Amino acid sequence: MQFEHDGAERREATLSPQDLAALEGALSHLSAGKAGLRLVGVLGLKPLLDQSGVIGAVAARVLPAARPVRALLFDKTPEMNWALGWHQDRTIAVREKIETPGYSPWTVKAGFLHVAPPFEVLANMVTVRVHLDPVPADNAPLRVIPGSHRLGRIAEHDVPEIVRARGEAICLAAAGDIWLYATPILHASDAAKTPQRRRVLQVDFATYDLPNGLQWLGV
User: Within 104-157, where are the H helices?
Assistant: First the structure.
């Protein structure tokens, strides 16, 4: 798959063993086995996520001047082995609630404020998924619908037909690989068939300031 056409692209062996060690060191103090942990103020991440860093540079190639605006750590294990159905990511994390036209509803996730922005905000973002562990076919690889990021906000009742008509792609990965996605791409994940540890650092990138005093939560 190619990012420009499909909205998804694999960058193999982007992180060297040294890069992986630095990333694991930055995340080592975090609780293991969490389904999804939102990351703010984690020391050691900034140099990796900057435009000159090994992770930030991947986003900057398709989104010049990209900066990280949200990060999550997914840690799937034999004890914490979940599945997610087909969906689009529809919310952004912000620092405080400021009522703004087009931005609603407001929610709190893991103690952080989120809001659903106008679709064009999401359409101008990219998401990077950094694989700390191998993801073969039986270890819950992400599934995506190529080109679905161009369909706008997809109604739930339209999802089965889109999946049937367009088909899905399976995002296998080795440790150190990066997958680059258009943020609104339709995606899903099964529970692992042969459960192993599957850690993924997911970072959303954007280039612009939000309106009306809203501020990205940041990383």
Answer: 119-123
